[in-house]
Amino acid sequence: MALFGSLPRIAIIGAGIIGLSAAYELAVRRGARVSIFDTRPPGRGASWAAAGMLAPAFEAADEPGQHTRLFELCLHGAAIWPDFAEDLSARSGIDIGFSRAPCLAVALGANEAIRLGRISARLGGARIEHAALTPDEVLRREPAISPGVLSGLELPSDLRVNNRQVVDALIAALRTHPKVKFVSDRAPLRAVGSQLRLEGHDIILAAAGWETAIIKVEEQGQLFSLVNWETALDDIDCYGGQMLSVADGAGAPKRVVRSGHVYLVPREGRIVIGATVEPDRVMDEPEEAAIEALRLEAIRICPGLADAPVLERWAGVRPGTPDQAPFIGETSTPGLFVAAGHFRNGILLAPMTARIVADQILGKDAGDLAGAFSVRRTYAATA
Ligand code: GLY
Question: What's 80's domain CATH number?
Fold first, then answer.
């Protein structure tokens, strides 16, 4: 990355939590000039659909085929969230619902009990405070759990935010900032020889989630996919996710509960229940059968939810790479950067991604861990 005499002018394509956080870091915290391009309303895609858990253990510590350093990246991501939350709330004047949310993971079957054991070992290795619990200890902490529980794992240090308020706070802080411009048209990318240009900008940051690969570039009057300038972007795939919320009540858990692929998150008078993970699916609307399957799974974990009225159903699309970890950094086309493919950890990794990509764009050393998430990496072998 060439060093600029003054700060570079940056075009960010994609106004989800990753693009918005990068804009916040680059413009608000570091003083660069930024344009954010998105033809859709900012922050209303995957960032809006998420549950807001900032919890590295259950989506990054023990998943087959994952990037070997994703858990480490997620731990760093969680560590910088308190500072980011304080700064963002102060600058935007919006409460983003940042708090501690001790999580209880429970096993109702033998395989899940084994998995919790592996996660516990991984947490121990990373010196993360946690406690392995007997069934009695689980039920004392959370009486809403099924009495058939086999074991549990408590993580007192997990965090949470209201992800919808986070994107609204980012938008509020950015809209009033003199160095930031929101553009609701397609980014007018042009190919000039082997280079990419966007008039008035020195750097392009592709941060459009699962749609990053289909960002368009004009070359001699024709539109081509950005993949022609960085072939690895073709590896970002879509993973649909469906969720629902039910009314809070007597049989509902008071803390975040996870079991297998299901999580239950108490939030503002409701229990958010997620989520399906559906490869190759782009969905705007939830489907009745999938929502009902999730609801029944939640009832298996917390039987008292059986009569809880369903309040809301929704769907979103996660962007995933083959090793479930994001692409962050400069691509093989000079001046084209990427921050996309965050899969299940977009909210958790937004401040960390913003910091890394801002360091790299501004010619600072982002460190060895950041380098491991380069788009030019080779993928970890599937476990
Ligand atoms: N991180 C929540 C999900 O991907 O469902």
Answer: 3.50.50.60
